[in-house]
Amino acid sequence: MDEVIVFGVVRNTPYNKTVGDTYILGIESSCDETAAAVVRSGEELISNVVYSQIPTHHPYGGVVPELASREHLRAIVPVVRKALEDAGKTYESIDAVAVTQGPGLAGSLLVGLSYAKALAFAADKPLIAVNHLEGHIHAVLLEERQNGNSELQFPVLALVVSGGHTHLYLAERHDSGWTYRNIGHTRDDAAGEAFDKVAKLLDLGYPGGPVIDFLARHGNPQAVKFPFAQIKHRDRNPQNRHSPDELRTDFSYSGIKTAVLRYVEVNNMAASIARRREVMKGISKPKPEDYLAHCDRQTLDLVASFQRAIVNDLVDKTLSAAVDHAAATMLVTGGVAANSELRATFEARAASDGLPVLFPSRKLSTDNAAMIAAAAYPRFLAGEFAPPDISSDAALRLG
Ligand code: KG4
Ligand code: ZN
User: Fold this and answer.
1) Which one, of 164, 29, 140, lies nearest residue 371 by Cα?
2) Alpha-carbon dihedral sign for residues 293, 296, 301, 307
3) pLDDT at residue 244 is higher than 60
């Protein structure tokens, strides 16, 4: 790439360097993945290491925050070393360290941020703080650039849909970087959280998304009807208001979880769930096929109908927001973007509307550090370095 001069301040000292290719080490520890990656100039994935804690949390049917921080502590040094080694880089030969500042679990974030701060200090590199949600958006942008598609049509509408978030953003690129405006969010549970909670209720393990994705292919998605409400409203908050009476589109996924619970009770499914629990106890690392072998028709129909309802709601609301805001491109990202039915439905519906919809590969849909290193690149060019006293923020907002 062309050389540019980066001006910033690193630990109270002016930073003034002419840079060409820029190698950023990204570190991510916001939830239950300890991840590190090296990305070149926001456009080429050089290495990508993800240590998943799923086996630790699986027996509890969800992430246990205390166990997550402990696992991050154990994994962070070897994960970062491996990412550098795979990239053929050293602490000295990288240009900057990027780390997730928030949102996420307080203890988990603290491990990544403290480590990144210490590393940047010891190696005398700039530290760049990244919002995890911005990272998910840049997972798509990184791969698009890597595939030679660097020209996006604006406005860009991004749906970030994961275990902790269901957010809609309008994203814009400026000379000095990217800005985001939130135009919708979930009012209660995130979509991935609903997948995880329904899987827990039906004893299908953790995380719920991948198992339900697999099982749903074997059930009838029309069997059970789960209605959703449209939650479209004018933004009456003067602080948020971009233009008078801007339309917002919100989501809500706690109701469907309760509806599944009611269905289980009314249809006396407790005995079949208990039978599955007993069998699964005897399988050390159950695979989706193992769950399939122990699901009756009623369970398969229920999960297929549940998934269809969530997918339709996400697609309907996002496409409707795309019309409201005259979006020219859509991005769908975050763990739930790995869902096969969500991808297929978005692709079919967006194609009929003539709107491009971009997804990350499955490996960059769920949490990873490549997205953090990619999101950090425009900040690096703008010299937006984190001060030495930066702290993590579990409730950090984007836009
Ligand atoms: O982005 P991510 O790794 O972590 C958060 O930032 O939350 O997302 C994890 C979430 C979990 O709720 C998981 O069940 C869901 O993504 N997920 C899926 C699929 N793969 C992961 N949900 C539906 N279908 C999938 N194939
Ligand atoms: Zn995430």
Assistant:
1) 140
2) negative
3) no
The 3 state secondary structure assigned to 339-381 is CHHHHHHHHHHHHHHCCCEECCCHHHCCCCCHHHHHHHHHHHH
* Angstrom distance (rounded) from CA 32 to CA 15: 34
Residue type, 359: F
Residue 237 has pLDDT above 70, yes or no: no
What integer is the mean pLDDT of 233-262?
81
Percent pLDDT > 90 in the chain is 88
129 DSSP β-pair partners: 99
Say how far apart CA 186 and CA 381 lie, in whole Å. 33
Q: Which of 57, 336, 371 to mutate to test the pocket of ligand 1 (most atoms within 8 A of CB)?
A: 336
Strand ranges, E, within 165-315: 166-174, 177-185, 231-234, 247-250
Mean pLDDT of all residues in 384-397: 96
Q: What is the pLDDT of residues 284-296, one digit of tens each?
A: 889 999 999 999 9
Written as one string, the DSSP assignment of 32-65 is: SEEEEEEEETTTEEEEEEEEE-HHHHGGGTS--H
**DSSP assignment of 117-135:** HHHHHHHT--EEEEEHHHH
- Rounded CA-CA distance 254/359 in Å is 26
Return the structure tokens found at 30.
């916001």
Nearest alpha carbon to residue 134 among 164, 171, 105: 171
Residue 191 and residue 309 in contact, taking contact as beta carbons nearer than 8 Å: no
User: Does the Cβ of 162 fall within 6 Å of ligand 1?
Assistant: yes
Tell which atom from ligand 1 comes closest to the C-alpha of 190: 12
Residue in the block written with tokens 């660097």? 150
Cβ-defined contacts of 168-173 (< 8 Å, 24+): 168/249, 168/317, 168/318, 168/321, 169/133, 169/137, 169/398, 169/399, 170/325, 170/327, 171/137, 171/331
Lay out the sheet containing 96-102: strands in order across.
44-52, 33-40, 23-28, 96-102, 127-131
For the CA of 340, the nearest atom of ligand 1: 26
pTM exceeding 0.85: yes
Burial 64-99, CB ≥16 within 10 A → b, else e: bbeebbbbbbebbeebbeebbeebebebeebbbbbb
102 CB near ligand 1 (under 6 Å): no
